[in-house]
Amino acid sequence: MDGRGGSFVAVRRITQDHSHTAEVVAGSGAWIGKGFSCVCVQGSDSDPRLSFDLTPSQEECLQKLQRRIEVNYDNADPDHQDALKELWNASFPEEELSDLVSEQWKEMGWQGKDPATDFRGGGFISLENLLFFAKTFPKSYQDLLQKQEGNRAMWEYPFAVAGVNITFMLVQMLDLEAVKPRTMTGVVFLKLLEENEDAFDILYCITFKLMDQQWLAMNASYMDFNTVMKSTQHELEKQLLLLEDITHIEDMPYFSLLQ
């Protein structure tokens, strides 16, 4: 993370009669969101002098993913609006959304009543990642959204904004905006992407679940989010580098975390 002051939203968990509600509290600090400071650092295997040749298939897969990464969230685009509504319905199927700009969004861990302001750092792909997670691994998604597992902190990380951070961290870690990968983790990932066009979305889900696991193991609270994200990235890089010979994202040991 750089030294710029951003804004954060912490989610305080309140327990009453064994039911959980969320109270969103705004504050100041080095955090993600409207200022969107990066919470990750480039891995130790990074070297700008390195360059790896791609097969035509890998190059095509990378370019396709890069086109997704380049799309900004546009709150005037009907397709983007529909995707946002779909995310709400997948997250809270029994609660009707009153409007695309609503205080209800804070229930999901957005900083304010308009999620569009939080997509600036991650782009439309960060919404696609969340929606993929909600539809493909609904139990794991709901467990994280509702903070149903483990002994949670009084001040929890905001689910949705953390999700945008994870998208941003993965793009940086895998060096996905470069013409060719310059890290071994990027090379390993492109092999996985070549076999499964959903590899980035699946890796996102794995990373989100791993981040929450790290959060619980470290007994973290919101001021520890940066540390947890760095630990998550380190663990993910280590896993990818140890598994250079795997060709399917489902072969990653951490894939078993998803349900």
TrEMBL record:
Coiled coil: none annotated. It comes from the Eukaryota. PANTHER family: ELMO_CED-12 FAMILY PROTEIN (PTHR12771:SF20), ENGULFMENT AND CELL MOTILITY (PTHR12771). InterPro entries: ELMO_dom, ELMO_domain-containing. This is ELMO domain-containing protein. Residues 79-240 form the ELMO domain. It comes from Papaver nudicaule (Iceland poppy).
